[in-house]
Write a structure and sequence with these properties.
The chain has 163 residues and is mainly beta. It has one domain. A hairpin with a 2-residue loop joins strand 3 and strand 4.
């Protein structure tokens, strides 16, 4: 089964990217760069002094070279810059689906949101995992391993992993 590991407030979240075939995620924001271990839900590295990462982003591939223990590793990103290219389905059939715009919960029902659900392989279970709203959806999807998934909003990062 899946477990909500953590939700982080990330002001000005712009792009995210999973390290290829791993569950580490780089987050690029107006506040700098961060690396998250999505299996544990922990922030494991932070680069505060680099809010100017934009100049290091390869604009043709939307990739960036990591830092700290991911130094010299090129990481493909998506979000505000670049189409959401994260997988929406695991190899064993778990799927992330997004609703059409629909009214938010009371007392905010006059605003439209998109809800994101995790659907079981047999399609019998559909679990609410997040939504946009006051924060704009940047990207959502599974890591290459299929063991974690994230929802990246302009102000939050939501992390889930298998237990």
């Amino acid at each position: 089964m899946w477990t909500h590991k953590n939700t982080f407030g990330v002001g000005g979240l712009e792009n995210i990217g999973y390290v290829s075939n791993q569950d580490f995620l780089i987050v690029l924001s107006s506040q700098g760069q961060g690396i998250f271990d999505c299996k544990t839900g922990e922030k494991v590295a932070r680069k505060h002094d680099d809010s100017d990462w934009w100049h290091k982003l390869n604009k043709s591939t939307n990739s960036i070279v990591g830092f700290d223990f991911l130094a010299n590793i090129e990481i493909n990103t998506c979000g505000l810059y670049g189409e959401d290219n994260l997988s929406k389905t695991t190899q064993d059939g778990w799927t992330l689906i997004i609703s059409d715009p629909e009214p938010d919960d009371k007392p905010f029902e006059r605003y439209l949101v998109n809800r994101i659900y995790l659907q079981s392989p047999d399609r019998k279970v559909k679990i609410f995992v997040g939504k946009n709203g006051a924060c704009e959806l940047r990207a959502f999807g599974f890591s290459d391993t299929g063991n974690t998934f994230i929802i990246a909003l302009s102000c939050d990062l939501i992390i889930y992993s298998r237990t």
